[in-house]
Amino acid sequence: MGKLYDVIIIGGGPAGLAAGLYAGRARLSTLLIEKDKEGGQIVQTAEIENYPGGLAEESGPTLIDRMSSQADKFGVEKVIDTIEDMELAGKEKLLTGKKDTYRAKAVIIAAGASPVPIGCPGEKEFTGKGVSYCATCDAAFFEDFEVYVVGGGDSAVEEALYLTKFARKVTIIHRRDQLRAAKSIQEKAFANEKIDFLWDSVVKELKGDGLLESMVVENVKTKEKTEIKASEEDGTFGVFVFIGFKPASEIFEGKVRMDNGYIVTDPDMKTNVEGVFAAGDIRVKSLRQVVTAAADGAIAAVQAGKYIEENE
């Protein structure tokens, strides 16, 4: 058997890196396991304006680089591996990866979540260049521009309402002829003069040269396609996608308590399993932002340290 760590963190996004920083600084032997590359969703963000104390020209990669360096400074070990199975009950936690097996006294799950994409040509190329999955993050970049919101559920309509504080016009694109959002939310949207609706429609393609400049929309009933272009004056517009989020939690099914795929924790990031904590986008929470992920990670690491002390 390999080394018995005090804490193993699954996931190298802001929650995992913050947890590593706090655990390492507390002199806990800490291993961070990331399946791909550090940073999670935030590394796709070209500009960050709402992280407290961020640089004047902050981006996802620059913020993650600094977070990663801080974790390294305090002795956090890192490995690239994909966890495939685990035994979390008992005082010693056992994690089985594709490459190796790992042991720890406490585990912090920070595997994250990702937005469900439209899945159309051009979406990936224009993410961060007109396409966004977070109104709170990016609304300010589209002040006085036109924006489109894809989706018809609670999140989509709530985000559309939020966007009206910045954009001059917001159009909700929905594949059905009526919204799925709660009636109270719908009423607010219908009463808002800035919000328009494009019913029975789906986005088929996103186009542009550097920035998003047009999109092709198809009517699901008539199959008629229409190309919507940015005004000459603006040169671009925003497309905000809110058709769902998918937590990276499949591997934890049956291991910890979940709600609709998200891990349930208390305010101290404790799951229903002793010595197992969750932080960031993978847990049930009301706001998924870098700042709340970092806070979750810090709390989880401190609580993990207390758990280890109490069970020595």
Automatic annotation (TrEMBL):
EC top class named in words: oxidoreductase
Obligatory cofactor(s): FAD
A Gene Ontology biological process term: removal of superoxide radicals
Cofactor detail note: Binds 1 FAD per subunit.
GO annotation, cellular component aspect: cytoplasm
GO molecular function: thioredoxin-disulfide reductase (NADPH) activity
Keyword DNA damage applies: no
Its EC number(s): 1.8.1.9
Reactions mediated catalytically: [thioredoxin]-dithiol + NADP(+) = [thioredoxin]-disulfide + NADPH + H(+)
Alphabetic keyword roster: Disulfide bond, FAD, Flavoprotein, NADP, Oxidoreductase, Redox-active center
Record's keyword annotation contains NADP: yes
Domain FAD/NAD(P)-binding: from-to ranges: 5-297
Any one Pfam family match given in the protein's UniProt record, by short name: Pyr_redox_2
Quaternary state and interactors: Homodimer.
Similarity comment: family membership: Belongs to the class-II pyridine nucleotide-disulfide oxidoreductase family.
Protein name: Thioredoxin reductase
Source species: Zhenpiania hominis
Gene behind the chain: trxB
